[in-house]
From TrEMBL, chains A, B:
Matching InterPro entries: FUR, Fur_C, WH-like_DNA-bd_sf, WH_DNA-bd_sf
Presence of keyword Calcium: no
Protein name: Transcriptional repressor
Residues the entry annotates as binding Zn(2+): C99, C102, C135, C138
DNA sequence: GTAACTGCAAAATATTTGCATCCTT
DNA sequence: AAGGATGCAAATATTTTGCAGTTAC
């Protein structure tokens, strides 16, 4: 019997392997939160080679299973894509919230990015909005 | 006689030195555009030590002369702060546009970030909005 | 069995730190 | 003159690449 995780991988034509399952599981467990590369190494229990994590993230990114989130600090963070995200093209039009207290990034699924009017000549393709502040857990 | 550049540095209680002037000049010349660390090394004519660039950017950031811009790719980019940005606290509430063709980042000073309504318990402090697409020069 | 994935080693990059020297005030 | 800034060397950290061994299908 296939689990949800297996299905996600198969849908993207990826082999179902231990590390992929573990990492995907972590993303699901984080539930909308964002993970940096370092988080993944820690939270999986340091079982994988760092290289495998890099490659797995890269693969997930290409297949559209996860997307990267822009942050003001250097860190690159990833979060699971919701339905509607096909490989490459994301309709990831919700707001990301970075907590300055706990450092966690949350996808605010309920908050859509509002429309903006761009100056003449600018052709938008993708919108990203990041709000920094104090999240509801650190309040 | 003091130039604009000298004034900016003095206002932030920084010594007026060659590298700082050069880097600041570059930011002014970029006119709202954003620079990645690599751009600065290139465009100044490779005159400085890489370390100096790192430290200068760090200093400018602390003094509030520049701010960092979040991007979806890993790169960290910086742009000049406008008046109203004191050290640490920026009122940098305009939209940033990243061109997928030429790679340049532009501050769209005329485009304000619209208000959004956050879920209960989230206390916003800073808003960042990044739009990716094709800029007016690459159109 | 074959193609794809992983882990190890090592290379290539990027960033930080220490310290002696030089420049700004 | 004194403190801060720079440049060099080197230590760290991060990310990428090659390849042989292993695993999924």
């Amino acid at each position: 019997m296939d689990t949800q995780i297996d299905n996600i991988l198969k849908r993207s034509q990826l082999s179902v392997t231990g590390s992929r399952k573990r990492i995907l599981e972590l993303f699901l467990a984080t539930n909308g939160g964002a993970l940096a590369h370092g988080d993944i190494e820690k939270k999986t229990g340091e079982k994988f080679d760092r290289v495998t994590v890099y490659r797995t993230l890269q693969t997930f990114l290409e297949k559209g299973i996860i997307h990267s989130i822009p942050t003001v600090d250097n860190s690159v963070r990833y979060a699971m894509c919701k339905e509607g995200c096909a490989g490459g093209h994301h309709h990831d039009n919700h707001v990301h919230f970075v907590c300055s207290a706990c450092g966690n990034t949350t996808c605010l699924e309920s908050v859509m990015i509002p429309e903006v009017r761009l100056p003449e000549g600018f052709q938008p393709e993708e919108f990203q909005m990041v709000i920094t502040g104090v999240c509801k857990d650190c309040h």
